[in-house]
Specification:
By secondary structure, the protein is of the alpha+beta class. It has one domain. It is about 35% helix and about 15% strand. It has six helices and three strands. It has a three-stranded antiparallel sheet.
């Protein structure tokens, strides 16, 4: 007899981060940070990757928080092939990237932006991931920790 267990995935860990962003950086139009309800771009469904769809009208402080999150986890260096920083502040086991996609439908351009979260290795260390997200939330709660955006970083959003 084979007993199957459902191992926790990123979808079990990431809601804490989604809740934090919705609580701390509410969108003026009432749009939430959320898990995509459907795949607009037919991206591969992957248990090792979670996506948070960003509101259309991100506030300056929400952009600062996302940029700070990427910097604090070492994701900015790792994702640009510059090598990971010597000791990222809050860098393991999750990695973060910002994905921006466009579609042209019936003459209307539609942008979708996502915070993509993944992890290296075959299996997620769930406790380490929960700990990392808890530390990130604590770090991002303090406005003095948020980095100032220059024009180049702001353009990513």
């Amino acid at each position: 007899m084979v007993i199957q267990t459902n191992s926790p995935t990123l979808d079990d860990v990431v809601p804490t981060l989604v809740d934090f962003f919705n609580r701390r950086f509410p969108d003026a139009n009432g749009e939430d940070f959320q898990f995509p309800t459907y795949d607009r771009f037919e991206l591969d469904d992957c248990a090792d990757q979670a996506m948070i769809e960003l509101p259309d009208n991100l506030s300056e402080s929400a952009m600062q928080a996302i940029a700070t999150l990427m910097e604090a986890t070492g994701s900015t260096a790792a994702r640009t092939s510059c090598g990971a920083p010597q000791e990222p502040l809050l860098g393991e086991p999750l990695r973060f990237s910002l994905m921006k996609r466009a579609a042209w439908i019936d003459g209307v351009g539609i942008w979708c932006r996502y915070l993509v979260i993944d992890h290296p290795g075959a299996e997620l260390d769930v406790e380490a991931a929960r700990r990392q997200i808890g530390l990130l939330v604590t770090h991002l709660e303090d406005p003095s920790n948020l980095i100032e955006l220059d024009a180049e970083v702001r353009a990513l959003f």
